[in-house]
C-alpha cells in the first residue's frame, strides 16, 4: 500500500481545508408578511407560497 513519504505540514493541510467551512442558509423576506424564510419554500409564518395560501395558519 502507498504510504506518504513526508508528513503534511499544518499550512498545507489548512490550505486544503479552507473550502470546507459550512455556510449559513440564505433567507429571503416573505412578500406577504416580511418574515425571513428559505427561498422556494412555504412561509412557516403565514403559510403562503407564490402569492397564494398553501397552508392554513391560525
Could you walk me through the main structural features you see in this protein, from its secondary elements to its overall organization?
- The chain is an alpha+beta fold and 58 residues long.
- It has a domain of 32 residues.
- Helix content is 12%, strand content 14%.
- It is built from 1 helix and 4 strands.
- The protein has a two-stranded antiparallel sheet. A two-stranded antiparallel sheet has the order 3-4.
- A hairpin with a 2-residue loop joins β3 and β4.
- The longest helix is centred in the N-terminal third of the chain and has 7 residues.
- It is rod-shaped, with a radius of gyration of 23 Å.
- The model has no long low-confidence stretch (mean pLDDT 92).
What's the layout of helices and strands?
Layout: H1 10-16, E1 28-29, E2 36-37, E3 48-49, E4 52-53
Antiparallel strand pairs: 1-2, 3-4
Number of helices: 1
Mean of residue pLDDT values: 92
Write down the overall geometry. Answer: rod-shaped
Fraction of residues in helix = 10-25%
Run of helices and strands: HEEEE
Q: Beta-sheet strand percentage?
A: 5-15%
Number of strands: 4
The largest pleated sheet is described as: 2 strands, antiparallel
Unreliable residue runs: none
User: In order across it, which strands form the biggest sheet?
Assistant: 1-2
Question: What Rg do the Cα atoms give?
Answer: 23 Å
Determine the structural class based on helices, strands and strand pairing.
alpha+beta
**Ends apart, CA distance between termini:** 63 Å
Amino acid at each position: 500500500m502507498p504510504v506518504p513519504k513526508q508528513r503534511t505540514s499544518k499550512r498545507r493541510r489548512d490550505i486544503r481545508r479552507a473550502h470546507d467551512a459550512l455556510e449559513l442558509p440564505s433567507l429571503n423576506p416573505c412578500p406577504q408578511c416580511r418574515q425571513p424564510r428559505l427561498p422556494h419554500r412555504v412561509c412557516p409564518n403565514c403559510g403562503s407560497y407564490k402569492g397564494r395560501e398553501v397552508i392554513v395558519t391560525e
